[in-house]
Write a structure and sequence with these properties.
Number of helices: 0
Distance between the termini: 25 Å
Strand content: 35-45%
Radius of gyration: 22 Å
Shape: elongated
Number of strands: 19
Structural class: mainly beta
Order of helices and strands: EEEEEEEEEEEEEEEEEEE
Strand order of the largest sheet: 15-16-10-9-8-19
Length: 288
């Protein structure tokens, strides 16, 4: 929302490069208003061996209300692509990075999958020997187990050297976005760890702290070899207006994490799973 965008489109073999503006989430970005010229200057645009290649320049400063300056102090930037003709939404083909414009950059390292390599930090720390269900999404492992009166949860989220981050699980709203979900969130704030009980009043905004108090009981929380490890329990029943029950019915859980202080949106690290609470699990599952 409110992002300044440069979009290169390939239509029937012709390439166009447009200066657009996103008025809202997941809607078609609009062309800059009439009367304000595009800030983008195309240097080259061609298709070689099935790859569209476009280079362009863009001034640092904004010249009209629908342009954003390229902040020298940095920020978060998103790039996306699609083979569709519509410009409304890119689906999962999206990347996001926090960077400072103008800084030198090194070659990207080869990706390392969880559990590969020789160092202890390549995979999460060993989990306790409990018959838990395990879900994975990239560098986030979520385990849960039904107990007599409650559910046990464990989050393993790779921080690296970050000192601010969160790992969360939301449930109880049917999985249509986050609106109405009960959210249990482990946060790292300047290296300190807290467990919070929150409630998502709207999609893509920061979930509010439960004003009636937390139902979650922290067992332990620590950082081990660059991994945030958090264990806690939560009763089956919700005790207030901002709590959802963990009932033996079909539900959709969403688990996400990010190395940021911004709790409004988790970015691309997001796993979604339909399940029935309390059903047995046969094996760990990589979630789309």
């Amino acid at each position: 929302e409110k992002a300044d965008m440069v979009i290169a489109s390939l239509v029937e073999g012709d390439i166009t490069v447009e200066d657009r503006y996103a008025p809202a989430h997941m809607v078609r970005p609009e062309l800059d208003s009439t009367g304000f010229p595009s800030q983008v200057t195309v240097v080259s645009a061609d298709v070689v061996d099935g790859v569209m290649r476009v280079t362009f320049t863009r001034p640092l400063n904004a010249t009209d209300p629908e342009d954003n300056p390229v902040f020298p102090e940095g920020g978060k930037y998103t790039w996306a692509f699609s083979t569709k003709s519509e410009l409304g939404y890119h689906d999962e083909n999206r990347g996001m990075v926090a960077t400072v414009w103008g800084q030198g950059c090194e070659a990207l390292p080869e990706p390392v999958l969880c559990g590969e390599g020789t160092g202890a930090a390549d995979g999460p720390p060993p989990a306790p020997d409990v018959p838990a269900c395990e879900l994975r999404k990239d560098q986030y492992f979520l385990r849960y187990e039904e107990r007599e009166d409650d559910f046990w949860f464990r989050m393993d989220f790779k921080l690296g050297s970050a000192v601010n981050a969160f790992a969360a699980v939301g449930f109880g709203n049917g999985g249509i976005g986050m609106r109405g979900a009960d959210v249990l969130m482990t946060r790292v704030i300047d290296g300190e760890i807290v467990l919070e009980d929150r409630f998502a009043e709207k999609d893509m905004v920061e979930p509010v702290l439960d004003p009636e108090g937390s139902q979650a009981t922290l067992i332990r929380a620590e950082i081990i070899d660059g991994w945030l490890v958090s264990e806690f329990t939560r009763p089956r029943s919700g005790s207030g207006d901002f709590d959802q029950s963990i009932a033996a019915v079909e539900d959709v859980i969403i688990f996400s994490g990010s190395v940021t202080t911004n709790l409004g949106y988790h970015g691309s690290l997001r796993g979604v799973k339909s399940l029935v609470w309390g059903e047995s699990c046969e094996a760990a599952e990589e979630v789309e």
